[in-house]
Amino acid sequence: MLANYGYKDGSGDYFITIDTGKCDGCGDCISACPNGVLEIVENEFDPLEGGQIAAVSEEHRKKIKYSCAPCKPTSGREKLPCISACEPNAITHSW
Ligand code: SF4
Ligand code: SF4
């Protein structure tokens, strides 16, 4: 399933989505993230699958716009570090 973390405000939508079916809990996105936005948690979304998956840490869920600001692409074509690091393509961002 798709786990959405984030919010909308007057300036836009700020969501990070983790596809819990694709995420294998490898942790590569955590190493790639300069701001500690992501963490590994127990997979409570797919009880039959179990295991561990990436999630946005509680601390950052209400301030993703600011937490992720340093990674904002300058050319519009650069991939975000967390997305580049994720081989199974389990992470998407709404911006
Ligand atoms: S965009 Fe940057 S700060 Fe935000 S989760 Fe990805 S790597 Fe971390
Ligand atoms: S890099 Fe991708 S597969 Fe690995 S933990 Fe992060 S989201 Fe999951």
Please, could you describe this protein's structure?
The structure is a single chain. The protein is 15% helix and 31% strand. It has 3 helices and 5 strands, in the order ββαββααβ. The chain has helices at 28-32, 64-67, 81-85; strands spanning 2-9, 12-19, 38-42, 52-56, 91-93. The strands form 2 sheets. A 3-stranded antiparallel β-sheet has the order 1-2-5, with no helix packed on it. A two-stranded antiparallel ribbon has the order 3-4. β1 and β2 (12-19) form a beta hairpin. The longest helix is centred in the N-terminal third of the chain and has 5 residues, at 28-32. The mean pLDDT is 94. The structure holds iron/sulfur cluster (SF4) (2 copies). Residues 18, 23-29, 54, 85-86, 88, 90-91 line the site of one iron/sulfur cluster.
User: Helix/strand/pairing class, anyone?
Assistant: alpha+beta
- By CATH reckoning, the class would read Alpha Beta
- What is the CATH architecture term? 2-Layer Sandwich
Count of separate DSSP helical elements:
3
Strand order of the largest sheet: 1-2-5
Series of H and E elements: EEHEEHHE
Largest sheet: 3 strands, antiparallel
Radius of gyration, in Å, reads 13 Å
How far is it from the N-terminal to the C-terminal residue, by CA?
Answer: 20 Å
Low confidence ranges: none
| CATH third-level topology | Alpha-Beta Plaits
Mean pLDDT: 94
Helix content: 10-25%
Shape: globular
**Strand residues, percent:** 25-35%
